[in-house]
Amino acid sequence: KLPAPTSAPHVVITAGPTREALDPVRYLSNHSSGKMGYALAAEAAAQGARVTLISGPVNLPTPHGVERIDVETAAQMHHEALTLAPHAGLFIGCAAVADYRAASAAEHKIKKTDDSDTLTLTLVKNPDIIADVSALPTDQRPFVVGFAAETQDVARYAEDKLTRKGLDMIVANDVSQQGLGFGSDNNAALLLWRSATGTSQREAPPQPKTQLAALIIRHALSLLPSQRPS
Ligand code: C5P
């Protein structure tokens, strides 16, 4: 295998769900398939970049030429992301990170009891991985691309997320549309990015995730201010 051209940035991508243990046999998670993040990793590698994929538990093969680090929890994903991001040129947060985890995972299997019909779990907030990458000092900060899954007012909520998380670009999609997004092979998106005039946007119509991934990678790479050595 030929090494990636030296001008290509190191691209770090988070993908898939995270899994937060409740006890030794149960966890909190979500339906993220990881397909979009894996398609982005495959595409970035095909476009000549060195790619590291930080992946939650998914049923997908590692794309050709991509280095993969497997994690389960948001805390593990956060640790790997904050270790790699300061040396990367482009960071893409595509993972569906669990917003909360159990305050403490039970050491033994939680037992069903006869005296109550309810069970209360105490959850604590997980770190916001992409916001922490965005907050890295300027000389360590990669170009940061996030994703936003919305069910209404896609542009407005995405722009708000772009600002609140301090991102450079966001890929927003309407997850209420049948046959698109979560678990599907197709996706449509609105790309928003910071420009000299404020926020610019571009609409990407419904298309296979592989094709959309190529568009997103090309677009993000074209916006990189300068390619820092990786
Ligand atoms: O706030 P929300 O989860 O909608 O934001 C989605 C974006 O933030 C995605 O890019 C996702 O990967 C990232 N994210 C993260 N860490 C979290 C929550 C979301 O990196 N704890």
Description:
It catalyses: (R)-4'-phosphopantothenate + L-cysteine + CTP = N-[(R)-4-phosphopantothenoyl]-L-cysteine + CMP + diphosphate + H(+); N-[(R)-4-phosphopantothenoyl]-L-cysteine + H(+) = (R)-4'-phosphopantetheine + CO2. Pathway: Cofactor biosynthesis; coenzyme A biosynthesis; CoA from (R)-pantothenate: step 2/5; Cofactor biosynthesis; coenzyme A biosynthesis; CoA from (R)-pantothenate: step 3/5. Its cofactor is FMN; Mg(2+). By secondary structure, the protein is α/β, with parallel strands linked by helices. It has a single domain (10-102, 116-223), classed as Rossmann fold, CATH 3.40.50. The protein contains 5 helices and 12 strands. It has helices at 35-46, 74-84, 129-134, 154-164, 209-223, and strands at 10-15, 20-23, 26-28, 50-55, 66-70, 90-93, 100-102, 123-125, 143-150, 169-174, 186-195, 198-208. It has an 8-stranded mixed β-sheet with strand order 5-4-1-6-9-10-11-12, with helices on both faces. Strands 2-3 form a two-stranded antiparallel sheet. It has a two-stranded antiparallel sheet with strand order 7-8. Helix 1 (35-46) packs across helix 5. The longest helix is centred in the C-terminal third of the chain and has 15 residues, at 209-223. The radius of gyration is 18 Å and the shape is globular. The mean pLDDT is 92.
Architecture blueprint of SSEs:
Elements (H helix, E strand, L loop, with lengths): L9 E6 L4 E4 L2 E3 L6 H12 L3 E6 L10 E5 L3 H11 L5 E4 L6 E3 L20 E3 L3 H6 L8 E8 L3 H11 L4 E6 L11 E10 L2 E11 H15 L7
Parallel strand pairs: 1-4, 1-6, 4-5, 6-9, 9-10
Antiparallel strand pairs: 2-3, 7-8, 10-11, 11-12
Bound molecules: cytidine-5'-monophosphate.
Keywords: Decarboxylase, Flavoprotein, FMN, Ligase, Lyase, Magnesium, Metal-binding, Multifunctional enzyme
Protein name: Coenzyme A biosynthesis bifunctional protein CoaBC
Pathway: Cofactor biosynthesis; coenzyme A biosynthesis; CoA from (R)-pantothenate: step 2/5; Cofactor biosynthesis; coenzyme A biosynthesis; CoA from (R)-pantothenate: step 3/5
